[in-house]
Every structure is written in C-alpha cells, then in structure tokens.
C-alpha cells in the first residue's frame, strides 16, 4: 500500500482543477433541480434570496423541498428541524465511509470537506478518489468536486428564484408541484426491499394525521415505519447468521 | 426575512452540517451496521410516504376519494413517472394534470 505513494509523485495533475472538472456531471444533474427549487420556493412564499440563503447554508436538496412544503403547511421551525435531521442523518453514513481517504486531515480540512458532502458528491467522490494517489491530492480533488457542485446549487437556486418571481402566481398547478416531485422520487426509490416500510408509513401517517392535531404525525409515522422495517430486516438477517457471518455486502 | 424562517434555516443547517462533519471529527473510518444502518436507510422512503399520502387522501382534513384532484393527480403522476423517469417532465405533468382535474372536478 505505502511504497506506491512515496515512489514517484506523478499525480500532480490531479488536484483542485481536476476535481472541479469532474464536478461537471453533478452540475448538469443539479441544474434543473436547483432551478426548480428556486421557482417553487418563491411560489411558496420565500424571496429569491431567502431561497438562495437556504441553499447556501443547508445545501441538501430533498430536505429543502420538504422544508418549503412544511412551511407551506404551517409546521413549526422545530418540527422542520427534526424532520431535516431524520432525512439528513444518512449523510453521517456517507461521511463515515469517506473519512478513511483522509487519515491525516487537519481540523480545517475536516470542516471544509464535510460541508460539501451530498448524495451526489458522495457517489462521485467515492468513485474518483480511489484513483487519486496521496492524501494531499485527494483533499484537493474532493474540494474541487464539492466546490463545483456547491456553486452550481446555490447560483441556480437564485436563478430559479428570479424566474419564479416573474411567473404567474395564479396557476393552481403549482400547489401540486412539490407533491409531484416527491411522488417521482418515490417511484425512483421504491424497491422490493423497502415497499413494506412505505406502506406502513403511509397508513400510519393517514391515521395519525386524522387523530393528532399538528404535524407531529410526520415524525411519529416515519420513526415507527423505519423502525419496524429495520427490525424486520435485522430479524430476517439474524436467521442467516452463522452461515455467512464473515462477509458483509 | 421572518424570524421563523431564520430559525428554520438555522436548525436545518445545524442538523445537516452536524451529520456531515461529526464522522470527520470523531472517527478514523468505522462502519455502522445492523439496526441503526437499516433504520437510516429506510427513513427517506418512509418520509416520502408520510409527506405525500396524507396530503393526497385527506387534503381538507377528512378522507376524500372521488372528488379529489390531489388523489387522482397523484396516482397519474406516479404512473407517468414509472414510464418517464424524468424529474422535470414529471413535475410539469403533475402540475398540468392537477390543474386540469381541479378545473374539472370542482
């Protein structure tokens, strides 16, 4: 493992700019989503710079869409905060699996590299960093990837917000836009491994919404459904322990 | 900007950045397994259900099936996006269908 790195440093060409160029694929993917977010945020009552501010600080697509839907439904900041936590806790897993690329990182690098970790940048970084030799270079490449994606997300949110300002507010279709977005995300992520959790959450949410005032039904149904789903998986998995305890997928 | 929105963005930032930065600050690179990992993986799909289905089935506080543009637009959008897996086109389709049904049913 070690002598390859020390022998000859021919990876000078793989630095910040290399990462930045790699981020183009993410930028293309982000563009329509960021513009859509900007448009919807302004349609749901935010100003274009408030939308931009949210993209700048939060920088997590799905939870931003969820937040403007919840703001629209009248949820409290605390409710939105808790919902954001359970949506974005997955970044913890991604972060955990990126960390081994940077054993010698300084505090500043830790703070900086963590900022740009999203679903998309995680996937790209994991793919690209494997082929970059030397931790110094890997840091710069990741910074480049993250920067390109981040700048695209924030600037195109603002652009979308400006577009949204000029669109006719009367069109009733806009009140369905976010639901449509979530439905499309659902069809993209439903699988044989998670559809039971989806159904449990759906039933619980409808029943609890009718029974409990406020938006707390969201969090209760999500935690219960994910908990039951995870418990079920662990239970099923434990039958196989002993046969195949060494290998993890 | 309202104080509520500022508070919302602040809380969202703390929990999101917190999830991203904690492993960088605390770990050399372990892996979470078992219940916690499955739970975290299942949260997004559960949340999609909890966000969408009640809004489709009970748009005005009680369960409505027939005269409900949300429900039918939702079902049609679901079917559409199964065949056309494109975020932008799907949203446009959903908005158009909802608008049409909204005019038709009320």
Automatic annotation (TrEMBL), chain A:
Protein location: Cell membrane
Keywords: Cell membrane, Membrane, Transmembrane, Transmembrane helix, Transport
N-terminal signal peptide: none
Entries under Pfam families matching the protein: AzlC
Presence of the UniProt keyword Magnesium in the record: no
Recorded topology in the membrane: Multi-pass membrane protein
Transmembrane regions: 20-41, 53-72, 78-102, 143-163, 169-188, 218-234
Protein origin, superkingdom: Bacteria
Main localization (coarse): membrane
Similarity annotation: Belongs to the AzlC family.
Protein name: AzlC family ABC transporter permease
Native source species: Desulfosporosinus nitroreducens
Lineage: Bacteria, Bacillati, Bacillota, Clostridia, Eubacteriales
């Amino acid at each position: 493992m070690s002598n390859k790195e020390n022998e000859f440093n021919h990876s000078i060409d793989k630095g910040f700019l290399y990462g930045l160029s790699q981020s183009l694929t993410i930028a293309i993917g982000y563009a329509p989503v960021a513009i859509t977010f900007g448009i919807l945020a302004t349609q749901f009552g935010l100003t274009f710079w408030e939308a931009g501010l949210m993209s700048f600080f939060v920088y997590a697509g799905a939870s931003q869409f969820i937040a403007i839907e919840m703001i629209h439904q009248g949820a409290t900041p605390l409710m939105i905060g808790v919902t954001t936590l359970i949506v974005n806790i997955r970044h913890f897993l991604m972060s955990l699996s990126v960390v081994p690329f940077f054993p010698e990182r300084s505090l500043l690098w830790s703070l900086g590299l963590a900022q740009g970790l999203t679903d998309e940048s995680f996937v790209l970084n994991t793919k690209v960093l494997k082929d970059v030799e030397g931790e110094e270079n890997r840091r710069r490449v990741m910074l480049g990837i993250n920067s390109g994606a981040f700048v695209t997300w924030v600037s195109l949110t603002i652009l979308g917000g400006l577009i949204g300002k000029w669109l006719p507010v009367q069109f009733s279709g806009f009140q369905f836009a976010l639901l449509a977005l979530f439905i499309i995300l659902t069809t993209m992520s439903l699988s044989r491994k998670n559809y039971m959790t989806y159904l449990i959450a759906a039933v619980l949410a409808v029943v609890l919404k009718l029974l409990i005032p406020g938006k707390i039904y969201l969090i209760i149904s999500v935690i219960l459904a994910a908990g039951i789903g995870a418990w079920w998986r662990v239970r099923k998995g434990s039958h196989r322990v002993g046969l195949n305890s060494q290998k993890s997928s | 900007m309202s104080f509520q929105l500022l508070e919302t963005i602040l809380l969202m930032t703390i929990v999101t950045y917190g999830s991203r930065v904690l492993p960088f600050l605390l770990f050399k690179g372990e892996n979470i397994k078992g219940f916690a990992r499955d739970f975290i993986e299942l949260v997004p799909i559960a949340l999609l259900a909890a966000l969408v289905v009640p809004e489709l089935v009970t748009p005005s506080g009680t369960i409505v099936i027939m005269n409900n543009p949300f429900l039918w637009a939702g079902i049609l959008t679901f079917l559409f996006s199964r065949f056309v897996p494109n975020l932008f086109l799907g949203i446009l389709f959903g908005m158009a269908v909802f608008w049409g049904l909204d005019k038709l049913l009320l």
